[in-house]
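User: Is it possible to get a 3D structure for a protein together with its bound compound? The compound here is pyridoxal-5'-phosphate. I've pasted both below.
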Amino acid sequence: MRATRAIIHLGNLARNMQAIRGFIKKGVKICAAVKADAYGHGAVECSRRLLAEGADVLAVATVGEGVELRDAGIHCPILLLSLCAPEETEDAVRHDITPLVFDKEYIELFSMAAEKVGKRGYSVHIAVDSGMGRIGCLPEEAGKIARMLVDSGKLTIGGTCTHFALSDGTSQEAQEYTQLQYTNFLKAIDNIRNEGLEPGLRHCCASAASLSHAEMQLDMVRPGIILYGYYADEVDREYLNKLGTPLDLSPVMTLETEVSAIRRFSRGMSVGYGRTWIAEKDTDIAVLPVGYGDGLLRRWASSGLEVAIGGKTYPIRGRVCMDQCMADLGLGSPVHRWDKAVIFGCKADGAAQDADDIARATGTISYEITSCITRRVPREFVE
Ligand SMILES: *Cc1c(COP(=O)(O)O)cnc(C)c1O
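Assistant: Yes, that's possible. Here is the predicted structure of the complex:
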């Protein structure tokens, strides 16, 4: 295996899942979001563990992601959170992947697919746009859509859902908007019932709302990022402590590599493309076989990324290349060639920072940091 690897701590995934369980009311189902290869952690292995730890449903974003899970022998319900192309609908139905539908054309496409594949009463969920501004029907259309769906004769309502735009914020404005969306969602549910139809599983909470708006858990919650050990923006460790509902999460991924060479640089020598860093004094430079082709972005270094080697941290110098980057060890460091170098992740692995630290420094969110670790980086699954 390559020196550059992502260590995936399935034990931490399991502990995070159990910690979340503690937050979720009895009888509420858990739909674990494993889209984007489980936020970069490896969808098949993470799904298997999450199911073993009591997840009821898995959520993916593409038909291909769902098929990957089916091919791995996973039989639980799989929810498709994003829309697929017309030519993918049959494949979705054949693999029992449950789509979110909200308009006539998409309902017709799935009815036809169900007909062709020979499945009667194919379960789909109705998506309601209660204020996210992405997919879904308006709350007042929900009854009409539900009727259309049932009248197709091929589909049944397995559930009804919505998604919040601001539930990871803790300001009064954010909370009021979430409350407004929730009220809109309940109106949509009423609208369906007024048609004499049942909405099926009602679900609206991703990670943030599952934790901070327990009254909105309804029949199912859809946590993602917290499974992987990171809080959802402002709904963080401190905020939950303040609410009196502490939650202890541990990162699941550690990105590590090895020092592939140590080279003595004399004053005036430059490091890498663009010669953006020039040694002001003699120093030892460690070459690390990890670059933006692995997901370690150029921005991380220009935002002050430090790599941890043997319990000490060293700054990355110069530009990150596609496959390599360079760290400044100074003179007389205890670092040896082939020593382990940790980019981010678990403290127990020697990491000095986690994905949230890098996200904050580079103006993004932890989701993006772990999801962007590319396929070239082997995932090593450990307990
Ligand atoms: C990604 C996603 C989730 C999970 O979101 P987290 O913030 O990671 O918990 C839940 N629901 C929908 C519709 C999503 O797209």
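Residues 98 and 122 are 8 Å apart (CA to CA). The pocket of pyridoxal-5'-phosphate is lined by residues 33, 35, 81, 163, 206-207, 222-225, 232 (CB under 6 Å).
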